[in-house]
Amino acid sequence: MPRPAARGEASEALDGVRGEAGACKDCDLWEHATGTVFGEGPVPTSLMLMGEQPGDHEDREGRPFVGPAGRLLDKALADASIDRSSVYLTNAVKHFKFVPARNGKVRVHKTPTRAEVGACRQWWERELQIVQPAVLGLLGATAAQAVLGPAFRVSKQRAEPFELPSGVIAVATIHPSAVLRAREERAEVYAGLVSDLETIASHVPAARRRS
Ligand code: URA
Questions:
Q1: Is the confidence at residue 86, as pLDDT, over 80?
Q2: Which domains are assigned to the chain?
Q3: pTM value > 0.90
Q4: CA atoms within 13 A on the CB side of 5
Q5: Ligand 1 within 6 A of 69 CB?
């Protein structure tokens, strides 16, 4: 594990990577998206959460998790007693992939291909190096498979800890949008997300609980 970076040093490094990612054309998604939506939050910090890709709101605002899934995540973090302001939030893919909606209003999310996820890997790997979390929480299959490999199944392996070569503990759970999609069983799906977030937070060593 490299020595922990000082806060100023880390945010400067992150600004540099954010700038580079803003000009990324390594796959075709940049063409239709408004811009790169990079991660945000304190650096270094003990907990980093990674979703799939920005949605319609995130694309318009240029910030991760500010739409309906983000609001649900905020509530789940609060219910899991995790201070949202201490979490670095990012996505496996930095551009919004969508199909234009017929009514012209809401653009409909489209799952990124493995090649698109692969093209973005360089960005979250560099975020991980700078953020230096103790724990990386993976929200949904795209993020989980990007980090833990294509054979990973959230349905079978959620809440299990995996140690990455860097020593970071990666733990996957469902994506908050799975709660929004759930109907009668929504309360149960939500409770599962909160419980997994509690598990994720429990892997942060006591010595790093406040950073
Ligand atoms: N879903 C994600 O995976 N990330 C966001 O930033 C918003 C919605």
A1: yes
A2: 7-204 (3.40.470.10)
A3: yes
A4: 19
A5: yes
